[in-house]
Design brief:
Elements lengths: L17 E7 L3 E15 L4 E7 L3 E6 L2 E5 L3 H13 L7 E6 L4 H6 L7 E6 L2 H10 L12 E5 L2 H7 L4 E7 L13 H10 E10 L7 H12 L4 E8 L7 E8 L10 H7 L8 H6 L5 H6 L4
Parallel strand pairs: 6-7, 6-9, 7-8, 9-10
Antiparallel strand pairs: 1-2, 2-3, 3-4, 4-5, 10-12, 11-12
The structure holds spermidine.
Length: about 300
């Protein structure tokens, strides 16, 4: 083991012995040592905490669930964005539902053909606090190509007359204000506002801990879209570490329509996603295939 990987014993003078624990299924969990509490408050929708941790840097916690940490947010945000954007032939208009931290918008705007990204976030306070405490994540929220609407995402997709090429559902968990973002009616409304050949990606929880949620979403989405594919990424601070996304398409297939030349030419800066991961992420372990009823 490299010397720098060894954690030194904390000295006895370290009296700030505060830990954050997130329980998963009430029977397991993740525990992180906290340096300081940066912010704690209550928005009209949820409790918001920002903690500085030794191992993962600053961390945004909504209603007691970790949303982002400075150290690993890039994985989730790259993986919810680039597989769809390097599959759609010309993603000019992109809609992001949720994602008030701005990480998904940051990744979307690495694609020069995107003319406008619309972020629909229900909780204005999340955007304000992330601009203040996570400037490296929220860095594209003031980009002229970014339009932010503080609205209920489900209401927006049900009522808008606008059309989009790509929709990314960067939801929190299926409890509280985000529960509706996991339901069939919401996904049908997204199908309706997608242009021909449009693509939606939704985060679909942990394939280890949340198999019923994932299976139910997968089956509902198969009833709506002609092509539905689950893929995954490793996110250390999410329950179980393995996290799923579900890509739904009216036409383009991430396996056969990957824009390899454009990927090579663009040379975007990423730390997880690359052309190999684009394909590998769709290869599912057997326990996930079984959970989806594929074997
Ligand atoms: N249990 C954590 C699920 C979080 C998924 N969304 C994160 C939002 C980051 N933009």
């Amino acid at each position: 083991m490299a010397q720098e990987d060894l954690i030194r014993e904390e000295s006895m003078t370290d009296l700030w012995n505060v830990w954050y624990s997130e329980l998963h299924q009430q029977r397991a969990g993740l525990t992180l040592k906290v340096k300081s509490v940066v912010y704690s408050g209550q928005s009209p929708f949820q409790r918001i905490d920002i903690l500085d941790t030794y191992e993962f840097g600053k961390m945004l916690v909504l209603y007691g669930s970790i949303m982002i940490t400075e150290r690993d947010e890039f994985i989730y945000h790259e993986m919810i964005s680039h597989p769809a954007l390097f599959t759609h032939p010309n993603p000019r208009r992109v809609l992001v539902i949720g994602g008030g931290d701005g990480g998904t918008v940051r990744e979307v705007l690495k694609h020069p053909e995107v003319e406008q990204v619309t972020l629909v976030e229900i909780d204005q306070m999340v955007v304000e606090k992330c601009k203040e405490y996570f400037p490296q994540v929220a860095c594209q929220l003031d980009n002229p190509k970014t339009r932010i609407l503080f609205q209920d995402g489900a209401k927006f997709v049900a009522e808008t007359q606008e059309k989009f090429d790509v929709v990314l559902v960067d939801a929190s968990d299926p409890i509280g204000p985000a529960e509706v973002l996991f339901q069939k009616k919401f996904h049908q409304d997204i199908y309706n506002l997608l242009e021909d050949g449009g693509i939606m990606v939704t985060q679909s929880e942990s394939p280890f801990f949340h198999q019923r949620t994932l299976r139910r979403m997968y089956e509902n989405l198969q009833g709506i879209f002609p092509l539905v594919k689950v893929y995954w990424a490793y996110v250390p601070t999410y329950p179980s570490g393995i996290w799923s996304f579900t890509l739904c398409s009216k036409g383009p297939d991430p396996a056969t329509d990957f824009k390899a030349a454009q990927y090579a030419e663009l040379g975007i800066e990423t730390n997880y996603y690359n052309d190999g991961i684009h394909h590998a992420a769709f290869v599912l372990p057997n326990f996930v295939r079984k959970a989806l009823g594929q074997m």
